[in-house]
Design brief:
Layout lengths: L7 E3 L2 E3 L3 E3 L17 H12 L4 E8 L12 H16 L3 E7 L12 H20 L4 E5 L5 H5 L15 H4 L1 H4 L2 H7 L5 E6 L6 H14 L3 E4 L18 H10 L6 E3 L6 H9 L5 E4 L1 H5 L3 H6 L23 H7 L1
Parallel strand pairs: 3-4, 3-10, 4-5, 5-6, 6-7, 7-8, 8-9, 9-10
Antiparallel strand pairs: 1-2
Length: 329
Amino acid sequence: MTKLQNSITIRGNIIKNRIVMAPMVTFSFHGDNGSFYGNQHIAHYTERAKGGAGLIYIQATSILGATTSTEKWSDDNTKALAQIAVNCHQYGATVIMQLSCGNSKMEINELSISELHTLQEEMKNAAFKASEMGFDGVEYHFAHGFTFCKSLYASSNHRLDQYGGNMVNRTRIVTEILPEIRNKTNEKFIIGIRMGEYLPESTDGIEVAKIFENAGIDLLNISFGMSPPLQPVPEGYLCSSMSYSACKIKKEVHIPVIAVGEIRSEEQAKFLIENDYVDFVAIGRGMLADPSFANHIMDGEPVNKCYGCERCLWFTDHLKCPALLSIKK
């Protein structure tokens, strides 16, 4: 029986346990001297690494500017990001940058071939810079209705060139750049994808997952596509529909799969890992509420529970999070 404490190796990286800090944008954080990333971010991720997370995802960072070392790839930002990688490694955590490709307003059909190739250059250069900064890998964000999520949907992607049509073409934006990324990063560099199962049907998500695996993707982080799934889960299943999507994808591929979505308790985390539903459990709000969530669960200690606020205060002012305030008391 696999346990939460068991390590797993991906491309030679020994990930010390099965608990993942999910990529979550810290909206109320700010950088230093006008930068986007800074000491708040460094402390935030360091604390979760110290708290026992085996794998840490840095929040979604736009690829734009990677080629010119501007935007979030300027020197002041990359210095802070590099320090995050160093600090996380000091506590034995593996750390991956999530790369945001496009947004909800950018339409895949309106991009010219030249514009797509420019985005691919940004995708590659973002990976190269992440490797140079000391990160163990990158994850390309193909979920949550963003531009490249739309490219996976036949109903959204109406292109008539090599980036539209069948699913092989609709995934080409990333699969055709993988060889160059492999050639220009170290052999242990992890490349992952965040995606959903329903694209819009389950069979579509399974097809995409297999294409990514065959193309050389190392790790799949299963969230959702255009909208969260509402499909029922089997009787006795203790977690959300979103997390069940990961369980279904895992049955179809041979690379590690991460489940996410309202996993907030020791019981749920153990249920998913010990029943071999998935390879990792990603903790979102639970790890915002309790920086030591991983250690607490693995040591059999109570976690500092997320209050489940209807509108998470981390979207506006994390200092008002009632869970964090309860720790300070």
